[in-house]
């Protein structure tokens, strides 16, 4: 089910929109937009990968998307039931050791538990599943954080902030983008609870539903990032950027070198690898760009930081990609979303081919589309 359909379920919204489409004199369509809401629970559980649970079942409003909660519920159940009798291989043995260590031996975990179980100390969680994805974190988690901090200020609350895991491999996400966001909000590190490999019982917790398509809330967060991370004398790469996914293990362009040769020689594009930059550096490259091209997904989302009037966001996508990007791009009055349909070259995955599969693009079709989109040759 695509995002628009999911947004319209319930309340007769789908039927209402259908009637508006059939009424040709009507030129305004009332597509409902997420209105974020703050929730409070006196007793709940928190999964180390995000999400709030009540009676061991996920609270849907704490998730990132409208999709089913199978991934997070399965992970919660796995951790909840993991014990010595469940050890079957090296993976479960490793997971069991992590669970025991963080439950009984980690000083930080014991400190976390004490704070989380104290009903006199309000807590707020601002991340959910996919926190390792810069798009979800900057567009959704950060927006949630701002909403919760404003709520705390207006209600004289002093939150402990529940943050993603930081141990071992997770630390890189803090280096890449999480620390910069925490710094913008001037959050005292002593008031941050870094979750570990546990399902935690928690008392007095607040969380915000997903503001995914709410223009007011999302743009507030994005503009705040721009204002705080902008560097006046930054040496930007260029005004036309091709964001490569060549370093990604999936959903990359098979014939990228051939395509980029055309982009560079005839249209003046520069190739950039976002993995090589901090959030601040990424943002400053993109702000100064007028045209950004990439395969649809997190890489392309970076283009939504473009600041010039009449910026162009060129999406390389397969025919069955979800509709998130066109919806998000529509929130930005200065950005035109321009798709180029690619072929699926290497099919991977059963359910969502667009997530895993690698693409290819015919050179002549690329040139044709760029001309249609008024991208002049140099």
Overview of this structure, please?
The protein is of the alpha/beta class and 378 residues long. The longest helix has 21 residues, at 134-154. Helix 4 (90-105) crosses helix 5, helix 6 (134-154) packs parallel to helix 7 and helix 6 crosses helix 8 (215-229). It has helices at 3-8, 13-22, 70-81, 90-105, 107-116, 134-154, 171-184, 215-229, 256-267, 279-287, 298-301, 324-329, 353-356, 363-372, and strands at residues 38-47, 52-54, 57-58, 123-125, 160-163, 192-194, 199-208, 240-243, 270-272, 291-295, 311-317, 335-341, 343-346, 358-360. Mean pLDDT is 86; it is low at 1-13. It contains 14 helices and 14 strands. The protein has three domains: 3-32, no CATH class; 38-219, no CATH class; 240-372, Rossmann fold. The strands form three sheets. The protein has a seven-stranded mixed sheet.
Q: Which features characterize this protein?
A:
378 residues; alpha/beta; Rossmann fold; 3 domains; 5-stranded parallel sheet; 14 helices; 14 strands; 18% strand; globular; disordered N terminus
**Main sheet: strand order:** 3-2-1-7-4-5-6
Q: Helical segment tally?
A: 14
Q: What is the strand content?
A: 15-25%
The amount of helix comes to: 25-40%
How far apart lie the N and C ends? 42 Å
- Give me the oligomer status: single chain
User: Residue-averaged pLDDT, rounded?
Assistant: 86
**Helix/sheet category:** alpha/beta
For the largest beta-sheet, the strand count, sense and barrel status come to: 7 strands, mixed
Q: If you compute it from the alpha carbons, what radius of gyration comes out, rounded to the nearest whole angstrom?
A: 22 Å
What's the overall geometry? Answer: globular
SSE order in H/E notation?
HHEEEHHHEHEHEEHEHEHEHEHEEHEH
What is the domain tally? 3
- The beta-strand count equals 14
Low-confidence spans: pLDDT under 50, at least 5 residues?
A: 1-13
